[in-house]
Design brief:
Layout: E1 42-45, E2 50-53, E3 61-66, H1 77-95, E4 99-106, H2 111-120, H3 124-141, E5 149-152, H4 157-169, E6 173-176, E7 179-182, E8 206-207, E9 219-225, E10 233-235, E11 238-242, H5 244-256, E12 260-266, H6 270-285, E13 290-296, E14 299-301, E15 304-305, H7 316-321, H8 326-335, E16 342-344, H9 346-368, H10 377-395, H11 400-419, H12 428-442, H13 456-471, H14 475-487, E17 490-495, E18 498-503
Parallel strand pairs: 3-4, 3-12, 4-5, 8-9, 12-13, 14-16
Antiparallel strand pairs: 1-2, 6-7, 7-9, 9-11, 10-11, 14-15, 17-18
Bound molecules: adenosine monophosphate and zinc ion.
Length: 504
């Protein structure tokens, strides 16, 4: 493989650890929602092992870093569970009127990538670019908002080198056979995130691989010496490539400053990845690296760890091929609070599909029924109560199950009120507002148009044409339209209030 020096486009400026606000598109919070209760927001912090009130350090803008994908393959539904929980977190912070500066890395160099790209006869750049694109295609399908800043490890080698040099200046590193290691004895707080005590570790015992367990805690590698045939960079640290952990510390501080408000990832990252990020960052800056650490529990499949050998391994693409809509996968992944294990089952995804249909049919009923005039004060209050319960649940460490419970209870009660003729025309706006608030966070109400599928406007145009055809007794045309819609998965229902449609 061709030797590579620093790539063009690589940063050459020093690490000043000053965040650069100007480069972010600030996402404004929705003005319509009450900002006064933002103080009620609470998250479980892995660092302190308690649920704490959350307010960003500057009171306005949340500086958040999430560990992104290793782009060596397609994302699986476990990865997507973690990324979806972070999307819910983003949306909830925005709902509460906060601004966001969210940075996510793309790990585009690591052991697996080097092996797989070599096997494919491609450079790491060619190899990873296809999976980076696929990542954004897939996460777009499940409606994940794109972080304000996405950054690739290979574009930040200079930042990593500077950080390692800073650690060396502070006496926290040593070199062995061309590689540079972090001396964990130099950071007495090592273990504070994972709440592990590492006493009596043999001085100088090292680990070269990026992933290892707590029983193998050792001095870990910051910079790996070049190996024959592997991609490498020529730097003042010698020819080689970065270890995995250093990339997140360097990029987080590059874009967000020395202390982040929130750092998040899957629970498997607590140790060693996040523990090492804390050690590298704090040993350099002597400041707390992140105020809140949020970790998403794993997704299991039918009660077991997902793995290719068990035949229970699914990517989003696998589920879409089986005919599930991406928003159904999104709903399922979001429905279990992020700190609880999620047991993926096909019954569960079916139930998610049914739940979304129920909400869509409710929205349709609201939009197409003719309710008696007037407004019921009791039902208006019921809508406010549903909103309050929804918001209280999400403020409480993102209790998505509680939030969904509040919405479905409201839907059940108001459906009953509609059947009894108690739901009045003046209550429609309040009910639609409940759904709108729900969908700002969960975003599942709008169906994904299937390949060549019909969007709402096209369906409504055909429904109107059919009504016209029936009126003029052109039954051949009206039957034809019904058939055409049915083939596109749309069912028509003729009611006393007119024709309603729903998706199968
Ligand atoms: P990776 O692409 O391996 O770097 O992982 C991307 C994200 O997915 C990380 O935050 C992991 O912690 C998370 N992750 C990996 N496996 C699972 C799983 N089974 N359930 C939930 N999150 C996972
Ligand atoms: Zn990371």
């Amino acid at each position: 493989m061709e030797a590579s020096g620093p790539r063009s486009g690589m940063r050459t400026d020093g690490l000043d650890f000053q965040s650069d606000l100007a480069q972010f598109v600030i996402v404004p919070g929705p003005d319509c929602y009450d900002r006064t209760i933002r103080m009620a927001l609470r998250f479980y912090n892995t660092l302190t092992q308690t649920v704490e009130d959350f307010v960003p350090a500057d009171g306005q803008t949340v500086r958040m870093y999430t560990c992104g994908p290793t782009v060596w393959n397609y994302v699986h539904i476990g990865n997507l569970r973690t990324f979806t929980s972070q999307d819910i977190l983003r949306r909830w912070l925005q709902y509460r009127g906060l601004k966001l500066m969210h940075v996510m890395n793309i790990t585009d160099v690591d052991d697996r990538i080097i092996q797989q790209s070599a096997a494919a006869g491609q450079s790491i750049y060619e190899y990873t670019s296809q999976y980076t694109d696929a990542f954004f295609t897939d996460t777009g399908k499940v409606r994940l908002q794109r972080p304000e800043q996405v950054c690739k490890a290979t574009d930040h080698i200079g930042d990593m080198v500077k950080l390692i040099e800073g650690l060396t200046a502070n006496g926290c590193t040593y070199e062995s056979e061309g590689s540079t290691y972090f001396r964990i004895a130099s950071f007495p707080e090592y273990g504070k995130l994972a709440h592990l005590v590492f006493e009596g570790l043999k001085a100088g015992a090292r680990v070269d691989s990026d992933k290892y367990d707590k029983d193998n805690a050792r001095d870990f590698v910051l910079w790996k010496a070049k190996k024959e045939g592997e991609h490498f960079w020529q730097t003042p640290l010698g020819d080689g490539r970065p270890g995995w952990h250093i990339e997140c510390s360097a990029m987080a501080m590059r874009y967000l400053g020395e202390t982040l408000d929130i750092h998040a990832g899957g629970v498997d990252l607590v140790f060693p990845h996040h523990e090492n990020e804390i050690a590298q960052s704090e040993a350099c800056t002597h400041k707390p690296f992140a105020r809140f650490w949020l970790h998403t529990e794993h997704l299991m499949v039918e009660g077991q760890t997902m793995s290719k050998s068990l035949g229970n391994f699914y990517t989003l693409r696998d589920l879409l091929e089986k005919g599930y809509a991406p928003e159904t996968v999104r709903y399922l992944l979001a429905s279990v609070p992020y700190r609880k294990q999620l047991n993926f089952t096909f019954d569960g995804i079916q139930a998610a599909d049914t739940a979304i249909k129920r909400l869509r049919n409710y929205a349709l009923r609201l939009k197409t029924s003719k309710f008696p005039e007037g407004v019921s004060a009791k039902l208006a209050e019921r809508a406010s109560a549903a909103n309050a319960q929804f918001e209280t649940a999400l403020d409480d460490d993102l209790n998505t199950a509680g939030a969904l419970g509040a919405i479905f209870e409201y839907v059940r009660e108001t459906n009953t009120a509609m059947d009894a003729g108690e739901f009045l025309a003046g209550n429609v706006a309040g009910a639609l507002d409940v759904l709108a608030r729900f969908d700002k966070v969960f975003e599942v109400l709008e169906p994904t148009a299937a390949g060549g599928g019909m969007d709402d406007a096209a369906i409504e145009a055909l429904t109107a044409e059919r009504a016209q055809a029936k009126k003029s007794k052109n039954f051949a045309r009206s039957d034809e339209i019904r058939k055409q819609l049915l083939e596109a998965g749309i069912i028509l229902e003729d009611t006393k209030d007119g024709t309603r449609w729903k998706r199968k």
